Amino acid sequence: xxxxxxxxxxxxxxxxxxxxxxxxxxxxxxxxxxxxxxxxxxxxxxxxxxxxxxxxxxxxxxxxxxxxxxxxxxxxxxxxxxxxxxxxxxxxxxxxxxxxxxxxxxxxxxxxxxxxxxxxxxxxxxxxxxxxxxxxxxxxxxxxxxxxxxxxxxxxxxxxxxxxxxxxxxxxxxxxxxxxxxxxxxxxxxxxxxxxxxxxxxxxxxxxxxxxxxxxxxxxxxxxxxxxxxxxxxxxxxxxxxxxxxxxxxxxxxxxxxxxxxxxxxxxxxxxxxxxxxxxx
Length: 281
Description:
The protein has 281 residues and is mainly alpha-helical. The protein has one domain. It contains 13 helices and no strands. It is globular and about 45 Å long.
């Protein structure tokens, strides 16, 4: 997103990202559309609006004004929002153990992202509070979408849901590109070409393929566990840091241990369940 905003507006970045994701799935959607029950089609489309389209615009707008580190912390509110929206909208009964695990994981992730600030290596700006709220709003939409998929689209093929829902997003995203004068960009410029390429790659991998994998995880493991993948992002980031010969200290390792502890606690099966069923849930 940051590479994209170097030559495009936030709205252009968001629209191109979702258009690219939807366009990839259009050929598959022609075959998968007939597998979607008509009474569920509206929910399938709404899941893409709530879980992909609107958050893409919110994040793109927010990251033009706030630090990426702070955005990462706020993005990790997603599991907490899954819990809150599940309780408010679907009256889910979530064990205290799971809520505590989510909070511990969030604390570990926040500490990990803030570790450079703690060690004095960098600072984080808390200016533009309105843009901070944009990411908070996006995480609540993620929470609503996760619960909507796990409750209302239960049993449906996650690949079919993802391809059909995102393919429908080509229409509003294309209109947004036209409204934002995307074709007026200087496509002869190497900077613009790189920005467009970066956003298209983000749309294909970060939205299209990632949505399919995420919906598969929701179906197999449940909404709360699936949302905990947010806490796995730092592991990937640190992996690339090691590849780039960045320094990984004891504080980062401790933070990762805290995150793993929270994830384990949130998903640890209860003893009575194991005793009664003989299986690990």
